[in-house]
């Protein structure tokens, strides 16, 4: 009678137990793979950055490094060159398992880019490694399309969480990045478990390898009041426009280069010539690599008001010409330095607006305001949460229907005048310009 009672009244919960066990085991496997890959990547990145700083002449070899990476992708990586966009497309429309070669190719390509002085990030690399490694479980466990979608999302979450040390943001990023205005709650458990596991595995390896995540000190946060909230909202709109400008210019340069230079390896070679010449001629080392020292300085002291524009230009030139790496850390740099420049004008502390800009430009460029707000809370503390949320939401709205991920879908348009956009339209397929209807 006891079993009968449980079956009648708790049937849903009993059925949930084997499903939970399945996804927890799969998520732990994904976290183990992604966290280990991220730790190796962070270690290699640390070595590459230190080597470049110690031997500045390596920057002069950036064009040759670009050609080498371009040739490797042409010869071995044409099926995975779409990177993060390939992962997003496979989640929405599963076709075939991501080739395992994506992981070593993007790892090697990104480390080479940093070693010789390109301005690229690290998120794209960690996410691609996490997704590619997670998708190999499809072969092992003979996963169906729907389960494969969730495993890929868990890989994205684990990669993001482990490379930045932000498990909550990573979990939501894997759900939020797929479509504007829509979350996949059926993958919430897997993404959360994979993000936590990936972060913890990466931490264990990081201690063994002697590396660590970067910490940022935001200091005292002003009490909530009318002017600070209004000022952060105004800044948030500018952060969103900066994210839109970055995404649009990167895509435009990439498309222009592909039209003008048909042989793939020549594109990063030419981009490398421009970037290396500018760095060496202008003594602009602060605008290449990750730029972590400048980001940290933005929280503590006034910086040159054009630093955000310098980083944006060098990153657009690097990514738009075909160098491998992520966009997110350069977006952190752009946001922190833009916030630093705006702080005196808006009568706000440098650290507060640098912190809000850090996450808000990313929120606008990636269309991920919830994940970005959680990242602010994990990195800066809960006290900054409300200001970060205001900045991220305004940046999300003002960045429009564009973004760094062209395969992202429009699940729910941001504005009413975009309601005519068909469901699940890719950002890449949207018209270049949409005007709001004129009032009658």
Helix/strand layout:
Blueprint: H1 2-9, H2 11-54, H3 62-76, H4 84-92, H5 102-116, H6 123-135, H7 137-141, H8 145-164, H9 167-176, E1 179-180, H10 188-209, H11 226-260, H12 266-282, H13 292-298, H14 307-320, H15 328-346, H16 350-366, H17 369-380, H18 385-398, E2 409-410, E3 425-426
Parallel strand pairs: 1-2
Antiparallel strand pairs: 2-3
Helix pairs in contact: 2-5, 2-6, 2-8, 2-10, 3-5, 3-12, 4-8, 5-6, 6-8, 8-9, 8-10, 9-10, 9-17, 11-14, 11-15, 11-16, 11-18, 12-14, 13-15, 14-15, 15-16, 16-17, 16-18, 17-18
Quick overview of this protein structure:
This protein is an all-alpha fold. Helices cover 67% and strands 1% of the residues. It has a 3-stranded mixed β-sheet with strand order 1-2-3, with no helix packed on it.
Written account of the structure:
α11 (226-260) runs antiparallel to α15 (328-346) and α15 crosses α16 (350-366). The protein is mainly alpha-helical. The chain has a 3-stranded mixed beta sheet with strand order 1-2-3, with no helix packed on it. It has 2 domains: 17-209, Clc chloride channel, CATH 1.10.3080; 226-417, Orthogonal Bundle (Clc chloride channel), CATH 1.10.3080. The longest helix has 44 residues, at 11-54. It has 18 helices and 3 strands. InterPro entries: Cl-channel_core (IPR014743), ClC (IPR001807), ClC-type_chloride_channel (IPR050368). The chain crosses the membrane at residues 20-45, 57-74, 150-175, 187-206, 226-247, 268-288, 308-333, 345-366, 386-407. Its main location: membrane.
